[in-house]
Design a protein that fits this description.
heterodimer; A: alpha/beta; FAD/NAD(P)-binding domain; Rossmann fold; 7-stranded mixed β-sheet; 4-stranded parallel β-sheet; 11 helices; B: alpha/beta; Fumarate Reductase Iron-sulfur Protein, Chain B, domain 2; 26 helices; 8% strand; globular
Chain lengths: 430, 457
């Protein structure tokens, strides 16, 4: 019986299908390599807000106006310092090319201030054009509109919270009932789909397209508002049309507030990245985890994915590890230690578990910086700072050393390290 | 953290002893991100369907209480299993759905409850059980009929011409719709005048003997009764690589039974399949399926739902046909040096192929063949999901789910459809009028130049 002896070969094999992995794969392909992207699950972009942060706060906790200015003041061990400002520019250039006009923010080096569904103001480098009319720096009056039984977005709360967080525009929030009758459990997805295809819904005045019905319900609350903010559910494929129709019907600007998972802007971004991977000629295999590898003379020879107990080999001359951090399961932890489960790369961390956490949950947390340690060419290193494998690089959430949650730099880290790791892998494989 | 601050003295304890096929751990792993709901094709179009997160972990928890029954909406799940591939926490959603659906159908069997209520003197309760039961009766009979396509196919194949005339005869369809709720919008698939197994027996079985390279073909119901050309293509392709093909005794893989909550029926069929496939595996064969729902069932649903001797061996040794060749022969190299008739294909990846990690396989392999162009029509579900789209009350949802696929197919350059799944093929053809082929058929045309091939088809 055949034991899966023929491996599928590519110049570069990228493991992990999130923002860093997809960016690496595109960068490697652009460097002329044939690329295989192995991903266990659907892309984690569905879990992401769709906002692309570069650097929102300094490690000292000060809000950042211009991320490139602030970058120069970061400590030497910070990833941006280690791989250089050019990698950050390259990462954002690649991102801008993937998303085209569907994103805004590339006209300036400065951060934009975007209101979130939690009622806070967030400094970010790129934001969906669907969100552009909502910037907190704009002084025109806003009406936030939420929906009954869509509990993740409470418009009156968001309005009050943004005002107290310093948003200069006059704000109001109302909760209306959404057109159509949808079960609460999957209301979000039903609404997204119904708006996307402009489904017909029955209302007290007969049946009409849902975009019209929605505009009618918002209109009585408009008063002096010049913009209307809604939770990010205005369609998927046809989102720009949904926004345009609502703006035409209401006569004011309409914008979305990015939401938590499952995120519709994240899903739109995922589609754009998948198209970009296809355009770059990247081969994708999705649905099974990488569980083992063979190495020889300090080089990874092949990795194996698990198919219900049988192992399927993939070979490449260069590998990129982009499996994510603790939440993305690119790092594993138990009560005694942390590990990187695919290649067993060294993950620096205190032996005493009590030192993994800070006493106050809101201050510095050592675990937030856990991850593999890399050299300047992004090769994971052992505890004596020697590269573990000559043909392995790491990118994105699996990298340690930075508290990206406090800094708001997770996407920037993925883009900068993704493009650098992918490009180096692509060049070395030729 | 006050007097328990000393973490060094804190030892983990096991609160729940895990048991075989226990779903608690799956339920505990759900952190309510709702990503599963975002990929559910039914939840996107059906306002009454609460989505996989409810059907799986939430319903499992709710029904731990004895007086809570499985919600009726479980029958709205089409068993596409896309939620499995989306869950970042590896919650076994489809296993939970299959288990809940099985329990729901079990509780629909009302007669014994009614008798018990009568015996205890609860006449009103007995009457209400009977009333509810009669209302469900039509649905149960219909679902049972659809789930047991194997049996229908077996009878129809005895007199295929009569069956073909009768099943698509107007008044028959009117009756099926009115009495049983099987939509008359679709044409029934036609039954082959010679089944795959009849052809195999006529041909005298395998033309290759090779103890070192053996495969056992799981043709399933459809390639046997309806599209034997797919099975014949499988034989041509594998024999061209000098494999000895075995065609073991087999029954339905269970896919339509899982989808209709008929776990008892599925288990009966699974027992036959596991026994004969395990025997072939012991003889050195790998199990090859041409239908991706069959391979999905043998690989994933069997060990998740049943405890049968050798079931894990069958799961581990089952492959989709092209997948197996690709990893055991240098199929990529062979194809990149081959040429095929100039044809433009529009390919749809079935949900069950997607869940096995095979969504790009056909496109990757055939793109390298000189003359052949193949375009992927995107990640939409076709909407038919086996028996789902055949139910009158589900037909409109089925077509709404399939709409993006139809649109993409029409926008694509080619007009020759391709997919691995027989019911996706029905839906593709129903929505666009295109004829649909299986990757094995194209592969056979590319790789084999057999003059007898035309008589094989």
């Amino acid at each position: 019986m055949g034991a899966m002896t023929v491996a599928i070969d590519a110049d570069v094999c990228v493991i992990g299908g999130g923002l860093a992995g997809m960016t690496s794969a595109i960068a490697a392909a652009e460097a002329g390599a044939s690329v295989r992207l192995l991903s266990h699950k659907k892309s984690t972009l569905r879990q992401a807000s769709g906002l692309i942060d570069l650097l929102g706060y300094t490690p000292a906790g000060e809000i950042v106006a211009d991320p490139f200015d602030a970058m120069a003041t970061l400590p030497d061990h910070h990833l941006y310092q280690r791989i250089g400002e050019q990698a950050v520019h390259d990462g954002f250039d690649l991102f801008d090319a993937v998303v085209g006009e569907s994103y805004s923010g590339d006209h300036t080096a400065a951060n934009a201030l975007v209101p979130t569904y939690g009622g806070r103001i967030k400094p970010t480098a790129r934001y969906p054009t669907m969100t552009a009319a909502g910037l907190a720096s704009d002084r025109s009056p806003v009406l936030f509109v939420g929906f009954e039984r869509l509990t993740a977005f409470d418009a009156p709360y968001v309005s009050a919270s943004l005002s107290s967080d310093g948003m200069p525009a006059p704000t109001r929030g109302v909760t209306i009932s959404a057109p159509g009758s949808h079960r609460p459990d999957t209301r979000l997805h039903r609404l997204v789909h119904a708006l996307d295809v402009n489904e017909s819904v029955s209302t007290s005045t007969g049946s009409q397209p849902i975009r019209d019905a929605l505009a009618r319900r918002i209109e009585p609350h408009l008063e002096s508002a010049q913009r209307v903010g809604l939770p990010a559910l205005l369609g998927l494929e046809n989102a720009p049309d949904v926004r345009r129709d609502l703006e035409r019907l209401l006569g004011v600007d309409v914008f979305e507030l990015p939401m938590g998972p499952p995120s519709i802007p994240g899903q739109r971004l995922e589609h754009q990245y998948l198209d970009a991977l296809d355009d770059a000629g990247v081969f994708r295999t999705t649905g099974n985890p990488v569980v083992a590898f063979d190495a020889d003379a300090g080089r990874i020879q092949r990795v194996y994915i698990d198919r219900n107990g049988s192992r399927v080999p993939y070979t490449a001359s260069q590998f990129v590890l982009a499996t994510g951090g603790l939440v993305g399961k690119g790092l594993a932890s138990d009560r005694t230690a942390l590990s990187e489960p695919v290649f067993g790369c060294h993950v620096p961390h205190p032996a005493d578990r009590a030192e993994w956490y800070g006493d106050d949950p809101h201050t510095d947390q050592p675990f937030a910086r856990f991850g593999v340690a890399v050299d300047r060419s992004l090769k994971p290193c052992d505890d004596s700072e020697t590269p573990e494998y000559d043909n392995l690089r790491a990118a994105g959430g699996v990298l340690g050393g930075t508290d990206v949650t406090m800094e708001l730099s997770a996407s920037g880290r993925s883009l900068a390290s993704g493009v650098r790791a992918g490009r180096l892998a692509g060049e070395r494989s030729n | 953290m006050s007097d328990t601050d000393d973490t060094s003295s804190f030892d983990p304890v096991t609160v729940f002893e895990p048991t075989e096929q226990d779903l608690r751990s799956g339920s505990d792993d759900c952190y309510k991100c709702s990503t599963c709901d975002s990929v559910c094709p039914v939840a996107a179009v059906d306002s009454s369907f609460p989505g996989p997160k409810f059907q799986g972990p939430e319903q499992w928890r709710l029904t731990r209480k004895e007086d809570t029954e499985i919600d009726d909406s479980i029958m709205g799940c089409s068993n596409c299993m896309r939620c499995d591939g989306a869950c970042p926490s590896s919650v076994p959603l489809s296993q939970m759905h299959n288990t809940a659906r099985g329990a729901y159908v079990e509780q629909q069997r009302f007669a014994s409850d009614a008798v018990a209520a009568l015996r205890s003197g609860a006449f009103r309760r007995a009457a209400s059980i009977v009333r509810d039961g009669v209302a469900d009766f039509r649905e149960r009979i219909r679902n049972r009929l659809l789930a047991n396509y194997y049996t229908a196919g077996r009878f129809a194949s005895k007199l295929p011409r009569v069956a073909n005339a009768a099943t698509n005869f107007g008044p028959t369809r009117w009756l099926l719709e009115r009495v049983l709720g099987i939509t008359s919008e679709r044409s029934f698939p036609s039954f082959a005048t010679q089944t795959f197994r009849e052809w195999w027996a006529d041909r005298g079985g395998s033309h290759v003997e090779n103890p070192d390279k053996r495969v056992a073909y799981f043709h399933g119901c459809y390639a046997n009764y309806n599209t034997p050309a797919v099975g014949k293509a499988m034989v041509r392709v594998f024999e061209s690589f000098e494999y000895e093909v075995l065609v073991p005794q087999q029954r339905c893989s269970g896919t339509p039974m899982f989808a209709n909550g008929r776990l008892d029926d599925a288990k009966r069929h699974a027992e036959t399949n596991v026994e004969s496939l395990a025997e072939a595996i012991a003889d050195g064969a790998a199990v090859i399926a041409s239908c991706t729902s069959c391979s999905m069932a043998l690989r994933e649903e069997y060990p998740e739902l049943f405890d049968i001797d050798d079931i894990d061996a069958v799961s581990e040794h089952t492959y989709e046909s092209l997948e197996y060749l690709r990893h055991n022969e240098d199929l990529d190299a062979v194809l990149s040096e081959s040429s095929g008739d100039a044809e433009e294909y529009v390919y749809h990846a079935p949900c069950h192929a997607r869940n096995q990690g095979l969504e790009r396989q056909a496109v990757e392999l055939f793109s390298s063949v000189d003359g052949v162009t193949i375009e992927d029509v995107g990640d939409s579900c076709s909407g038919i999901s086996g028996t789902y789209g055949w139910k009158t009350e589900k037909y409109d949802n089925s077509m709404a789910i399939g709409d993006p696929m139809f649109t993409e197919m029409e926008a694509a350059a080619g007009e020759q459809g391709m997919t691995e799944c027989p019911t996706c093929a029905m839906q593709m053809s129903h929505g666009t009028g295109y004829s649909i082929t299986h990757p094995l058929e194209l592969l056979a045309d590319i790789l084999t130049d057999d003059p007898s091939a035309s008589s094989d088809r």
